[in-house]
Design brief:
single chain; two-stranded antiparallel ribbon
């Protein structure tokens, strides 16, 4: 089968992964503390082309493309005041620690609320952990001292789904834990305008792959039906 079919198909598959990543960024454009992703790609391999008679090198041809992974930009975003007493933002580096069913997880989304036990929890009901490692309790005045919230620095942080982050607690070189600010939220790291531009570019790349496959398919069909045909 024509090698071009594999090359075009691999490019289309890579763009599908990229489109899913961009769509996820768009859906979280208003999620506090969300961190945008970037899809990384690389050539799957190179085929060395040579003259079959003389052996002289002609050049190389890419055999395919593949997605190598997603890279998350954990850069802190601007903080906006909300006036809500249970909204918190980290000014600087670090994450809020949460107690989840899967163990301790971390987040930059400080849009918290109170549960029936008077604990500070996320929208999913996961308790927020304080400096003492225990769930934070809301005071009688309905407020929480931001100094009681624990800010954890992580080594090799990575997304764990539902705007949660996993990683190894520790202080990377050059990083200092940020300060917690109450009545405010960190903005989303997803830029809807840039995401739309990236989505359009990805769709055009995907459509180009489709056209290549259609062209090759038409050429092969013509070759199989007409090449070698004896005319009277």
């Amino acid at each position: 089968m024509d090698r071009g079919l594999y090359i075009a198909a691999s490019g289309m598959l890579a763009e599908q992964v990229r489109q899913n990543q961009i769509a996820n960024d768009l859906s979280n454009a208003s999620t506090p503390g969300y961190k945008a992703d970037r899809t990384t790609q690389r050539s799957f391999g190179q085929l060395l082309l040579t003259n079959s008679q003389t052996g002289q090198a002609i050049g190389s041809q890419s055999t395919a493309v593949q997605v190598t992974g997603e890279v998350t930009d954990f850069t802190a975003e601007p903080v906006k005041d909300t006036g809500e007493p249970l909204d918190f933002a980290i000014v600087g580096d670090g994450f809020f620690a949460l107690q989840t069913a899967n163990g301790t997880r971390y987040t930059r989304n400080g849009q918290f609320s109170a549960d029936a036990q008077g604990r500070l929890v996320t929208a999913d009901g996961d308790p927020v952990l304080g400096r003492n490692g225990r769930p934070v309790t809301i005071g009688a005045d309905g407020k929480v001292d931001p100094r009681n919230l624990n800010v954890v620095l992580l080594t090799n942080p990575r997304k764990g789904g539902d705007n949660l982050v996993t990683g190894t607690p520790g202080r990377p070189a050059g990083q200092v834990a940020g300060q917690v600010r109450s009545g405010a939220l960190e903005g989303s790291g997803a830029d809807p305008t840039q995401a739309m531009v990236d989505m359009i570019a990805s769709m055009r790349a995907y459509e180009s792959g489709q056209k290549v496959i259609q062209t090759i398919d038409g050429t092969l069909a013509k070759a199989s039906s007409e090449v070698g045909k004896v005319s009277g």
